[in-house]
Design brief:
6-stranded parallel β-sheet; 7-stranded parallel β-sheet; 2 domains; about 375 residues; Rossmann fold; alpha/beta
Length: about 375
């Protein structure tokens, strides 16, 4: 089985798209599938990280800063899908034929997919915006929405299979393994985990640290995690050193371990919600990107997180108030933990791989033929 992933990471895009594609690739690799990646050389890319994980990666050339801005858009905008599709086709082995091409990219839509389809048996889209048409055989949206089955109406081919909701969360193996070590949480807060993604451009971490300092939470341990793409990481490190009960971590590989140790988390919406939910970590959550708003609000409606709103309107006082409320209400914190645990089953990646295999009608050990 041969699978090609088209995905990018950058300071603006974040790392979530690459991380979830790597999660899927890792399980496919376990099943003896051959996985390769195509990534553009953006500022803050994760190309070397992907290669260190053992995956051949084809590199698309960097583009001008003017064009790069369109990566933030939710439609094709100035970004040229035709150019990207042609570059993708040209850069890979001309004799290659893939069982699956998996695309996880907000700037690409059905126009790109129509050009790429001739080099694959099946095409899969990972999305959560539901704002553009796709020409794909399989669509994955792992987020929870109240209206999940209506969001993609009119945007997909009639024969497209849709995998929607947390039953298909692409959860890294470290989190699945960590579940075996999960201990009961009684709602008492002795340790806080702070993580706002790989870049945290709005510097929510700083706001939370100011709240911790203001509240003088000297008896509560605080673990602060930042990514290498975080432009504020050196300042955050210095700030952590000046607060006695705060530990600083950068670019770690043991997030699951820190989640297990924590009694409450403070962080962003997006894919990290599912990591916290799976391990039952109650969390104070804010959204740092528009595409996180709907799903974060819907998850909050289930009582699985404490949702504060958009980061742009939040101050350290908002985080301080939320922390005080949590510390004073252990029963409420325990309820959030219980609701979070019920959302994610931990076999989402396997569920996705099973569907991919069934759609080809072959076993992993058998070669597939072009459709």
């Amino acid at each position: 089985m041969k699978v090609l992933f088209r995905v990018d990471a950058s300071a603006e895009i974040g790392s979530g798209h690459v991380v979830r594609c790597l999660t899927l690739a890792d399980l496919l690799k376990e099943k003896k599938a051959k996985c390769e990646f195509v990534c553009r050389e953006t500022k803050g890319n994760l190309i070397s990280f992907i290669e260190k994980r053992g995956y051949k990666t084809y590199i698309l050339p960097s583009i001008s800063s003017e064009v790069d801005q369109s990566f933030k858009c939710t439609d094709s905008g100035f970004y040229c899908w035709w150019s990207d599709a042609q570059e993708t086709k040209n850069i890979i082995d001309l004799d290659a034929f893939y069982d699956w091409v998996v695309v996880d990219h907000y700037a690409l839509d059905e126009n790109w997919e129509k050009i790429i389809k001739p080099v694959c048996n099946r095409l899969m889209v990972i999305d959560d915006l539901a704002n553009r048409r796709h020409d794909c055989d399989l669509l994955l949206d792992q987020n929870y929405y109240k209206n999940s089955h209506q969001r993609y109406q009119g945007l997909l081919p009639t024969n497209c299979i849709s995998l929607l909701g947390p039953s298909y969360v692409l959860l890294r193996k470290e989190f699945v393994d960590a579940k075996k070590k999960l201990l009961f949480r009684d709602g008492t807060i002795k340790r806080i985990l702070v993580f706002f993604g790989s870049s945290d451009l709005s510097n929510e971490t700083h706001k939370v640290l100011m709240a911790v300092k203001e509240l003088a939470l000297n008896t509560i341990e605080v673990d602060v995690v930042v990514g290498e793409a975080n432009p504020h990481r050196h300042y955050i490190k210095m700030l952590c050193k000046n607060i006695s009960n705060v530990n600083y971590y950068c670019n770690i590989s043991n997030m699951a371990e820190l989640i297990l140790r924590a009694d409450i988390g403070i962080g962003a919406g997006g894919s990290s919600i599912w990591e916290r939910c799976y391990l039952g970590l109650p969390s104070i959550t804010s959204v740092i990107a528009p595409n996180q708003i709907e799903t974060t609000a819907d998850v909050a409606s289930l009582g699985a997180i404490d949702y504060l709103g958009c980061s742009k309107i939040l101050s350290s006082d908002n985080y301080a108030t939320a922390l005080l409320k949590a510390i004073a209400n252990p029963n409420h914190v325990k309820l959030i933990s219980s609701n979070a645990l019920s959302l994610v089953n931990g076999i989402g990646t396997q569920n996705v791989v099973d569907v991919m295999c069934r759609m080809l009608g072959v076993n992993f050990s058998e070669p597939s033929t072009p459709a």
